[in-house]
Amino acid sequence: MSLTLVLGGTRSGKSAHAERLAVAAGGPVRYVATADPGDGSMDERIRAHVARRPAGWETVVAAGDLAATVAGTTLIDGLGTWIGGVLHRGEGDVAVEIERLIDAARQAAVIVVAEEAGQGMLPLDALSRRWLDLLGESVQRLSDAAERVDYVVAGRSIALSGPPVDVADLRRHGDRDVRPGDADHAVTVLAGGPPEWLRAALDVALDRYPDDTEARTATAMRHGRRPDEVVVTNGAAEALWLLGPALRPSLAACVHPGFTEAEAGLRAHRVPVIRVQRDPDEGFALNPTAVPDAADLVVLGNPGFGLDPAHAVLALRRPGRVIVVDEAFMEMVPGEAGSLAGESLPDVIVVRSLTKVLSVPGLRVGYALASAEMARRFEAVRPPWSANVLALATLTAAVAHTADLAALAERVGREREDLCERLAGIDSLRVWPSPANYVLVEVSDGPAVVAALREQGRI
User: Fold this and answer.
1) Which residue has the higher pLDDT, 203 or 131?
2) Which of 128, 129, 274, 423 has the CA that lies 20 to 30 A from 383?
3) Highest mean pLDDT, choosing among 9-13, 124-128, 205-209, 369-373
4) Of 348, 362, 358, 386, whose CA–CA distance to 233 is shortest?
5) Closest Cα to residue 258, out of 324, 326, 314, 315?
6) Is the preceding peptide bond at 413 cis, omega within 30 degrees of 0?
7) DSSP assignment of 50-116
8) Burial class for 130, CB neighbours closer than 10 Å (0-12, 13-18, 19+)
């Protein structure tokens, strides 16, 4: 299925990086140790590695037949030690076994950790030169066959090669299926267009470059934050796409169901991602224990198909981990219960949008709320003038119209309740209301239902 090669020097962090890739692959993992546990100091290293890995991983010790250890997702750590063992025992053909390993990777997901071949003078003794030759030749052969090659230095990974990241499925949203003339129910903006007070605010000059100073100050005032804790972005989606280059996480956990652009952006920046699924039978409630401890970035939406209380979100916090909460629909929740927008925490980033509640999808009105240090990271990778003057005018005007925003949230609640009452009268539907302006409906045959509604002219 796939072959990944992870290279690095001694104590570079290559094993930890490979382990995060294995976690992101999902499913059970077989860890293949190549060191001799009979060596006292090596046995201590093996125990340390085992202690930091998930308890459910299977650990096997490799001998000469390396390919025979492959089953499912397999992490082989490391290649140089295995070659040393082959030379020490005086048995086996390294080149032949490498080819067998490449063949085995066509039926499994294989991650190979390898020491970087020497960068200086050749060793003086023949055995060391032979080991170095075999290591270098094996690494080059694996690199040639691998779909992905990462180089790790000082705990940071650099992608040396890899196939283009396909995020097309993550970037396919429901509005793409809307035909000309259909009513677009996939775009979850409030019906009726922007309010009159906003229309008046948008009558601004367009003959200058955008300056977000006033908008940042106004947004900070709305949430009780400092202006240097506000990053204005081209919609909430841009803030989510900046997570990879701004934070450079080692392993991200994306909680689903939710807006998929965050995962698309992370994968596009070659960040390993693991999906954490909410359970519909538990009302899609957040389960912090379902997120792997190894994840140093967690992204979730709130509200989604439910409203997570603040304490449940904060239960995700761990040393070295950043929590990103997509609150794009929070404006539609009366009183914004559960919001963390007003909390200035060093490890929590809140992403917001006025696009939905003000019915202005074309303006891309978004921003991130973060500590000043985190905000600087976003500013460093954000394109210049990414927020246009109309979006900035919207943010500035919003601070003077908090009562109007609250009234819109109340309207959303009334319309959602009416929708749910009507849906309740239809047999064989399972409905999950949300705190926002949408509901999730389960039907037995989705494509057939869509086709029937189109035939009747309902969509």
Assistant:
1) 131
2) 274
3) 369-373
4) 386
5) 326
6) no
7) HHHS-TT-EEEE--S--GGG--SEEEEE-HHHHHHHHHHHT-S-HHHHHHHHHHHTTSSEEEEEEEP
8) middle
Nearest to 20 by CA among 297, 348, 246: 297
DSSP string, 115-158: EPPP-SPPPSSHHHHHHHHHHHHHHHHHHHH-SEEEEEETTEEE
CA distance 205 to 390: 9
**Encoded tokens for 315:** 């239960």
Check 17, 49, 173, 223 and give the catalytic one: 49
Written as one letter, the residue type at 358 is L
**Whether the predicted pLDDT of 44 surpasses 80:** no
Q: What is the pLDDT of residues 249-305, one digit of tens each?
A: 999 999 999 999 999 999 999 999 999 999 998 989 999 999 999 899 999 999 998
Rounded-to-integer distance, Cα 386 and Cα 400, Å: 24
Look-up of token digits 């035909």: 179
Residue 401 designated active-site: no
Name, in order, each residue with C-beta under 8 angstroms of 380's C-beta and a sequence gap of 6 or more. 246
CA-closest candidate to residue 48, choices 28, 33, 63: 33
Q: Which residue in 275, 280, 334, 326 sits closest to 303, CA to CA? A: 326
Classify 387 as helix, strand or coil: coil
The dihedrals phi and psi of 108, each to the nearest 5 degrees, come to -155, 170
Burial label for 109, CB within 10 Å (0-12, 13-18, 19+), is buried
